[in-house]
Amino acid sequence: MQSKQVQGHQRSGRRRGNAMVEFGLASSVIFLMAVGAVDFGRLFYESIAMAGAAQAGVQRGTFSPLASKDTSAILSSAAAGLSDVRDANVTTEQFCDCPYAPGVAVDCTTARCTGYGLSRLYVRVRVTKTFSTFGPWPGIPEETPIDLSNWVRVR
Q1: How far apart are CA 87 and CA 89, in angstroms?
Q2: What one-character DSSP code corresponds to residue 101?
Q3: What whole-number distance in Å separates Cα of residue 15 and Cα of residue 71?
Q4: Is residue 65 a contact partner of residue 155, using CB atoms and an 8 Å limit?
Q5: How far apart, in whole angstroms, are the C-alpha atoms of residue 128 and residue 91?
Q6: Whole-angstrom distance, CA of residue 48 vs CA of residue 63
Q7: What is the pTM of this model?
Q8: Tell me: the pLDDT tens digits for 27-78?
Q9: Which residues lie closer than 8 Å to 96 by C-beta, 6 or more apart?
Q10: pLDDT for res 73
C-alpha cells in the first residue's frame, strides 16, 4: 500500500528554517518595543510622582501664613512623596502680589495693596529632575528635564 502525500505539507530544504528566522526577527522587534514602552512608562511614573510630591509640599505650606514660612516641613512633605524617584531636587518659596498687579512680586511682610489690604500670599513648590532613558533611542534624547511646579494661595 502506497501512502499519498498531502500537497502543501512537504517542505523543501530551502524553506525549512523560515519560521525560525521570522520568529527571531519578530521577537527582537517586539523586545525593543517592550523596552521602549517600559522606558516611557518610567518617565510618566516619575512625572506623576513628582507632581504628587509638589502637591503634598504645597498642602503642607497652606495650613496658615506661619506654616508657609516653615520650609523644612514643606520640603520634608514633598520628599516623602518622592520615595520612588531618585535624584529629584525640591525647592520651595513664598511670594506675594496684589490683585491689581498679578505676577508682580511685592514684599510679603510689609506690602499693603491699595484698596485691598494685605498682599496675597502664595507658596510654591518646585520639583526638578533630569530623566535618563535606558539607552539611546533614535529621535529621542537620552536625557529629558522634568520640571514641575505647584503653587497655592495661602491668604
Answers
A1: 7
A2: E
A3: 71
A4: yes
A5: 9
A6: 24
A7: 0.78
A8: 999 998 999 899 999 999 999 999 999 999 999 999 888 888 999 999 999 9
A9: 105, 106, 107, 108, 111, 119, 120, 121, 122
A10: 94
Looking up cell 529629584, which residue turns up?
Answer: 88
If you ran DSSP here, which 8-state letter would residue 137 be given?
B
Does residue 11 carry a pLDDT above 80? no
Residue 1 to residue 24: CA distance in whole angstroms = 41
Residue 52, helix vs strand vs coil = helix
> What is the Cα–Cα distance from 124 to 40, expressed in whole angstroms?
28
Q: With the C-alpha atoms ordered 148, 150, 45, 72, is the resulting torsion angle positive or negative?
A: positive
Give the Cα separation of 86 and 46 in Å (integer). 9
- Does residue 6 register a pLDDT over 80? no
